[in-house]
Design brief:
This protein has 13 helices and no strands. The protein has about 230 residues and is mostly helical. Keywords: DNA-binding.
């Protein structure tokens, strides 16, 4: 039979069958002298089994492999499906947990670390990049937890508001006081060890972060930031 007939009998599209061929899930049949593929009932059965297996939770790769096997007990197939479903359930449970955390923390679309570093919309680009650059550091999640503690967050939000008010009229003494307060708050996070455990970034990454942070700053704010990075 031709591919269009096979597709109609199986209840799928021709494009689906071609895709299954492309990824190796469905073996290609021999071709006739005119170049057309020549399908038979075995191909139809294999295609129907693939549909059943993928519908039961197997990946297309696994479904294609199992559908092509002439041996293998139904228990083995069911065990394979059960393992695949278990993996999918675990992944979905993890996604729901992340969604619940995002909803509770008001940071949908952000990692927990990025959310902890964000106090306003203008902070988001820097927070997202910082979280990405430190994603492999084992202490960064604990650092985020410390930042999200109400007392720390209130103190840092106050610092943020004062920094946003800095302009060319801000005296040096006020800036030094602001810097000292920032160091004090950060040094006390998580009992004083967390910030120190985050290693410094490579110079090119620090510059990337600094360039992003400076986009919305005035000259006085930039000067303050550069002295402390």
């Amino acid at each position: 039979m031709r591919i269009a007939e096979l597709a109609e009998l199986a209840g799928v599209t021709v494009r689906t069958i071609r895709y299954y061929h492309q990824v190796g899930a469905l073996p290609e049949p021999p071709r006739r002298s005119n170049g057309y593929r020549d399908y038979n009932a075995d191909h139809l059965v294999t295609l129907l089994r693939i549909a059943q297996l993928t519908g039961s939770g197997l990946s297309l790769a696994h479904a294609g492999a199992l559908a092509a096997e002439s041996s293998g007990s139904s228990d083995e197939v069911l065990d394979e499906i059960d393992r695949a479903l278990e993996t999918r359930i675990a992944a979905l449970t993890e996604q729901r947990t992340r969604l619940a955390q995002a909803r509770a923390g008001g940071h949908l679309g952000l990692s927990r670390v990025a959310a902890a570093l964000s106090f306003s919309a203008s902070d988001l680009p820097v927070a997202v990049l910082f979280a990405h650059l430190y994603r492999d550091q084992p202490t960064v999640e604990a650092f985020a937890d410390a930042l999200l503690e109400p007392e720390s967050r209130a103190a840092l939000a106050s610092i943020q508001r004062r920094f946003e008010a800095v302009d060319e009229t801000t005296p040096d003494g006020e800036l030094e006081g602001l810097a000292a307060e920032m160091r004090s708050i950060v040094s006390e996070l998580g009992g004083g060890a967390l910030a120190a455990e985050l290693p410094p970034l490579a110079p090119e990454r620090s510059q990337l972060l600094l360039a992003l942070a400076e986009r919305e700053l005035n000259d006085r704010q930039k000067e303050f930031l550069r002295r402390r990075l």
